[in-house]
Protein backbone atom coordinates (compact mmCIF):
# COMPACT_ATOMS: atom_id res chain seq x y z
CA UNK A 1 0.00 0.00 0.00
CA UNK A 2 1.03 3.65 -0.25
CA UNK A 3 0.27 7.10 1.20
CA UNK A 4 1.52 10.57 0.23
CA UNK A 5 2.56 13.45 2.50
CA UNK A 6 3.40 16.99 1.36
CA UNK A 7 6.43 18.68 3.01
CA UNK A 8 7.13 22.44 2.66
CA UNK A 9 10.48 24.27 2.57
CA UNK A 10 10.61 24.41 6.38
CA UNK A 11 10.16 20.65 6.48
CA UNK A 12 6.68 20.93 7.96
CA UNK A 13 4.68 17.95 6.89
CA UNK A 14 0.99 17.97 6.10
CA UNK A 15 -1.50 15.20 6.58
CA UNK A 16 -0.99 11.91 4.82
CA UNK A 17 -3.29 11.09 1.97
CA UNK A 18 -5.81 8.29 2.15
CA UNK A 19 -4.10 4.92 2.07
CA UNK A 20 -4.27 3.12 -1.23
CA UNK A 21 -2.89 -0.07 -2.68
CA UNK A 22 -1.00 -1.06 -5.81
CA UNK A 23 0.01 -4.35 -7.33
CA UNK A 24 2.89 -5.46 -9.54
CA UNK A 25 1.80 -7.57 -12.50
CA UNK A 26 3.78 -10.83 -12.49
CA UNK A 27 5.89 -11.42 -15.60
CA UNK A 28 6.76 -15.03 -16.32
CA UNK A 29 9.96 -16.40 -17.86
CA UNK A 30 9.99 -16.49 -21.70
CA UNK A 31 12.20 -17.38 -24.68
CA UNK A 32 13.42 -20.80 -23.60
CA UNK A 33 16.18 -22.19 -25.80
CA UNK A 34 18.41 -25.23 -25.40
CA UNK A 35 21.75 -26.35 -26.81
CA UNK A 36 23.05 -29.91 -26.80
CA UNK A 37 26.32 -29.98 -24.84
CA UNK A 38 26.86 -33.75 -24.82
CA UNK A 39 24.61 -36.67 -25.62
CA UNK A 40 23.27 -36.59 -22.05
CA UNK A 41 23.23 -32.88 -21.23
CA UNK A 42 21.53 -29.67 -22.36
CA UNK A 43 22.38 -26.02 -21.80
CA UNK A 44 19.07 -24.31 -21.10
CA UNK A 45 18.78 -20.51 -21.38
CA UNK A 46 15.82 -18.18 -20.85
CA UNK A 47 14.72 -14.57 -20.47
CA UNK A 48 13.91 -13.69 -16.88
CA UNK A 49 10.57 -12.28 -15.76
CA UNK A 50 10.18 -9.96 -12.78
CA UNK A 51 10.30 -12.44 -9.91
CA UNK A 52 13.01 -12.24 -7.26
CA UNK A 53 14.13 -15.72 -8.31
CA UNK A 54 13.07 -18.48 -10.65
CA UNK A 55 12.86 -22.24 -10.33
CA UNK A 56 13.32 -24.81 -13.09
CA UNK A 57 11.61 -28.20 -13.17
CA UNK A 58 12.37 -30.94 -15.68
CA UNK A 59 10.37 -34.01 -16.67
CA UNK A 60 10.90 -36.69 -19.28
CA UNK A 61 8.46 -36.62 -22.23
CA UNK A 62 5.67 -34.62 -20.63
CA UNK A 63 2.62 -32.65 -21.74
CA UNK A 64 1.57 -31.42 -18.28
CA UNK A 65 2.92 -28.54 -16.18
CA UNK A 66 4.80 -28.21 -12.91
CA UNK A 67 2.74 -26.75 -10.06
CA UNK A 68 4.91 -25.88 -7.05
CA UNK A 69 3.26 -25.15 -3.70
CA UNK A 70 3.55 -21.64 -2.24
CA UNK A 71 5.79 -21.27 0.83
CA UNK A 72 7.59 -24.50 -0.02
CA UNK A 73 11.23 -24.58 -1.10
CA UNK A 74 12.54 -27.15 -3.55
CA UNK A 75 16.16 -28.28 -3.43
CA UNK A 76 17.72 -28.29 -6.91
CA UNK A 77 20.31 -30.52 -8.51
CA UNK A 78 21.30 -29.96 -12.12
CA UNK A 79 21.76 -33.71 -12.57
CA UNK A 80 18.33 -34.86 -13.64
CA UNK A 81 16.53 -37.06 -11.11
CA UNK A 82 18.61 -35.93 -8.11
CA UNK A 83 16.85 -32.66 -7.34
CA UNK A 84 13.70 -32.56 -5.23
CA UNK A 85 10.62 -33.96 -6.95
CA UNK A 86 7.21 -32.28 -6.99
CA UNK A 87 5.36 -34.98 -5.07
CA UNK A 88 5.26 -38.02 -7.35
CA UNK A 89 4.66 -36.07 -10.57
CA UNK A 90 8.04 -36.79 -12.15
CA UNK A 91 8.96 -33.09 -12.22
CA UNK A 92 12.46 -32.72 -10.72
CA UNK A 93 13.95 -29.41 -9.61
CA UNK A 94 17.14 -28.74 -11.59
CA UNK A 95 17.68 -25.06 -10.72
CA UNK A 96 16.58 -22.47 -8.16
CA UNK A 97 18.10 -18.99 -8.20
CA UNK A 98 18.57 -15.67 -9.98
CA UNK A 99 20.41 -16.75 -13.14
CA UNK A 100 19.10 -17.15 -16.69
CA UNK A 101 20.74 -20.45 -17.62
CA UNK A 102 21.58 -23.91 -16.35
CA UNK A 103 23.31 -26.98 -17.77
CA UNK A 104 21.26 -30.09 -17.01
CA UNK A 105 23.08 -33.44 -17.06
CA UNK A 106 22.04 -37.04 -16.47
CA UNK A 107 19.61 -37.07 -19.41
CA UNK A 108 18.91 -39.99 -21.73
CA UNK A 109 20.16 -39.78 -25.29
CA UNK A 110 17.56 -39.14 -28.02
CA UNK A 111 14.87 -38.36 -25.46
CA UNK A 112 12.47 -35.41 -25.17
CA UNK A 113 12.39 -33.44 -21.92
CA UNK A 114 9.97 -30.75 -20.76
CA UNK A 115 11.37 -27.77 -18.87
CA UNK A 116 9.03 -25.52 -16.89
CA UNK A 117 10.54 -22.31 -15.50
CA UNK A 118 8.51 -20.46 -12.89
CA UNK A 119 9.25 -17.03 -11.45
CA UNK A 120 8.47 -16.40 -7.80
CA UNK A 121 8.44 -13.57 -5.28
CA UNK A 122 9.66 -13.77 -1.71
CA UNK A 123 12.61 -15.40 -0.04
CA UNK A 124 13.42 -19.05 0.57
CA UNK A 125 10.62 -20.51 2.67
CA UNK A 126 8.09 -17.83 1.74
CA UNK A 127 7.90 -18.34 -2.01
CA UNK A 128 4.90 -17.06 -3.95
CA UNK A 129 5.07 -18.83 -7.31
CA UNK A 130 3.72 -17.06 -10.40
CA UNK A 131 0.91 -19.17 -11.91
CA UNK A 132 0.94 -17.54 -15.36
CA UNK A 133 1.52 -19.75 -18.40
CA UNK A 134 3.19 -18.28 -21.50
CA UNK A 135 3.77 -19.62 -24.99
CA UNK A 136 6.90 -21.78 -25.12
CA UNK A 137 7.11 -22.28 -21.34
CA UNK A 138 7.08 -25.18 -20.62
CA UNK A 139 9.43 -25.91 -23.50
CA UNK A 140 10.23 -29.34 -24.91
CA UNK A 141 13.80 -30.12 -25.99
CA UNK A 142 15.58 -33.27 -27.11
CA UNK A 143 19.01 -34.72 -26.43
CA UNK A 144 18.96 -36.11 -29.97
CA UNK A 145 20.14 -34.06 -32.91
CA UNK A 146 16.59 -33.50 -34.11
CA UNK A 147 13.21 -33.43 -32.42
CA UNK A 148 9.87 -32.75 -34.10
CA UNK A 149 8.37 -29.53 -32.75
CA UNK A 150 4.76 -30.66 -32.66
CA UNK A 151 3.62 -27.38 -31.08
CA UNK A 152 4.61 -25.43 -34.23
CA UNK A 153 1.90 -25.27 -36.90
CA UNK A 154 2.96 -24.58 -40.50
CA UNK A 155 1.30 -24.86 -43.90
CA UNK A 156 1.79 -27.84 -46.19
CA UNK A 157 3.44 -27.46 -49.59
CA UNK A 158 4.09 -29.87 -52.48
CA UNK A 159 7.01 -29.77 -54.94
CA UNK A 160 8.38 -26.48 -53.59
CA UNK A 161 11.64 -25.46 -51.92
CA UNK A 162 11.32 -23.51 -48.66
CA UNK A 163 14.00 -21.17 -47.30
CA UNK A 164 15.08 -19.64 -43.98
CA UNK A 165 15.98 -15.97 -43.49
CA UNK A 166 15.81 -13.29 -40.80
CA UNK A 167 13.67 -10.82 -42.75
CA UNK A 168 13.03 -8.49 -39.76
CA UNK A 169 16.55 -8.56 -38.28
CA UNK A 170 15.42 -9.67 -34.82
CA UNK A 171 18.01 -12.44 -34.59
CA UNK A 172 15.59 -15.30 -35.28
CA UNK A 173 15.35 -17.19 -38.59
CA UNK A 174 11.97 -16.85 -40.29
CA UNK A 175 10.51 -19.34 -42.77
CA UNK A 176 9.25 -18.75 -46.31
CA UNK A 177 7.25 -21.60 -47.88
CA UNK A 178 6.40 -21.21 -51.58
CA UNK A 179 3.13 -22.83 -52.59
CA UNK A 180 -0.55 -22.20 -53.14
CA UNK A 181 -0.61 -19.94 -51.31
CA UNK A 182 2.97 -18.84 -50.60
CA UNK A 183 3.31 -18.17 -46.88
CA UNK A 184 5.81 -16.33 -44.68
CA UNK A 185 6.10 -17.35 -41.03
CA UNK A 186 7.72 -15.04 -38.50
CA UNK A 187 9.83 -16.72 -35.82
CA UNK A 188 8.53 -15.30 -32.53
CA UNK A 189 11.62 -16.48 -30.64
CA UNK A 190 9.64 -18.61 -28.18
CA UNK A 191 9.35 -21.88 -30.12
CA UNK A 192 6.39 -20.53 -32.09
CA UNK A 193 5.77 -19.02 -35.53
CA UNK A 194 3.09 -16.59 -36.67
CA UNK A 195 1.93 -16.16 -40.26
CA UNK A 196 2.72 -12.78 -41.85
CA UNK A 197 0.41 -11.29 -44.48
CA UNK A 198 2.25 -10.66 -47.78
CA UNK A 199 1.51 -10.08 -51.46
CA UNK A 200 3.84 -12.87 -52.58
CA UNK A 201 2.51 -14.94 -55.51
CA UNK A 202 1.18 -18.48 -55.32
CA UNK A 203 3.38 -20.94 -57.19
CA UNK A 204 3.69 -24.63 -58.00
CA UNK A 205 7.00 -26.48 -58.44
CA UNK A 206 8.60 -23.32 -57.13
CA UNK A 207 11.57 -22.13 -55.13
CA UNK A 208 12.54 -19.04 -53.16
CA UNK A 209 15.75 -17.53 -51.83
CA UNK A 210 16.63 -14.68 -49.49
CA UNK A 211 19.21 -12.07 -50.48
CA UNK A 212 19.90 -8.39 -49.84
CA UNK A 213 20.20 -7.33 -53.47
CA UNK A 214 20.08 -3.57 -52.70
CA UNK A 215 22.45 -3.68 -49.70
CA UNK A 216 20.04 -1.88 -47.38
CA UNK A 217 20.44 -4.41 -44.58
CA UNK A 218 17.08 -6.13 -45.13
CA UNK A 219 16.64 -9.50 -46.81
CA UNK A 220 14.72 -9.42 -50.08
CA UNK A 221 13.06 -12.38 -51.84
CA UNK A 222 13.55 -14.03 -55.21
CA UNK A 223 10.80 -16.49 -56.11
CA UNK A 224 10.14 -18.77 -59.09
CA UNK A 225 7.47 -21.29 -60.03
CA UNK A 226 4.45 -22.10 -62.12
CA UNK A 227 1.27 -20.09 -61.72
CA UNK A 228 -1.08 -22.20 -63.87
CA UNK A 229 -1.81 -19.44 -66.36
CA UNK A 230 -2.20 -19.97 -70.09
CA UNK A 231 -0.51 -16.66 -70.86
CA UNK A 232 2.28 -16.83 -68.28
CA UNK A 233 2.80 -20.40 -67.06
CA UNK A 234 5.83 -19.54 -64.92
CA UNK A 235 7.37 -16.57 -63.12
CA UNK A 236 10.71 -15.37 -61.75
CA UNK A 237 10.32 -12.29 -59.59
CA UNK A 238 12.16 -10.22 -57.01
CA UNK A 239 10.36 -8.67 -54.05
CA UNK A 240 12.06 -5.87 -52.14
CA UNK A 241 11.84 -5.74 -48.34
CA UNK A 242 11.28 -2.13 -47.25
CA UNK A 243 12.54 -2.87 -43.73
CA UNK A 244 9.12 -3.10 -42.11
CA UNK A 245 8.29 -6.52 -43.50
CA UNK A 246 6.43 -5.26 -46.58
CA UNK A 247 7.57 -6.91 -49.82
CA UNK A 248 7.03 -5.11 -53.13
CA UNK A 249 7.49 -6.65 -56.58
CA UNK A 250 10.33 -5.01 -58.53
CA UNK A 251 8.61 -4.86 -61.92
CA UNK A 252 11.57 -3.07 -63.53
CA UNK A 253 13.69 -6.21 -63.06
CA UNK A 254 13.16 -8.75 -65.85
CA UNK A 255 14.18 -12.38 -65.33
CA UNK A 256 13.59 -15.57 -67.28
CA UNK A 257 10.46 -17.30 -66.01
CA UNK A 258 11.08 -20.86 -64.79
CA UNK A 259 9.58 -23.63 -62.74
CA UNK A 260 10.77 -27.12 -61.74
CA UNK A 261 13.85 -25.17 -60.68
CA UNK A 262 16.02 -23.89 -57.85
CA UNK A 263 17.15 -20.31 -57.27
CA UNK A 264 19.96 -18.64 -55.35
CA UNK A 265 21.84 -15.36 -54.97
CA UNK A 266 25.55 -14.75 -55.59
CA UNK A 267 28.05 -11.98 -56.39
CA UNK A 268 29.50 -13.40 -59.62
CA UNK A 269 31.55 -10.25 -60.52
CA UNK A 270 32.80 -9.39 -57.01
CA UNK A 271 31.35 -5.87 -57.04
Automatic annotation (TrEMBL):
SUPFAM superfamilies: Integrin alpha N-terminal domain (SSF69318). InterPro entries: Integrin_alpha_N. Gene3D superfamilies: Integrin alpha, N-terminal. This is Fibronectin type-III domain-containing protein. It comes from marine sediment metagenome.
Amino acid sequence: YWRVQAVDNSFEGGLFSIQDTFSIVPVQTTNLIAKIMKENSLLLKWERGNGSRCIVFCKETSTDIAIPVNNESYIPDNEYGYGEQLGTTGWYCVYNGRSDSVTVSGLKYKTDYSFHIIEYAGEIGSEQYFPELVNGNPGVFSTGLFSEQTSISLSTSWFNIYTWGDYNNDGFSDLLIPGKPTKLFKNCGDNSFSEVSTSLPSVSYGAAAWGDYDNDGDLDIAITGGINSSTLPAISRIYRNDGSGIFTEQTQISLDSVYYSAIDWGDYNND
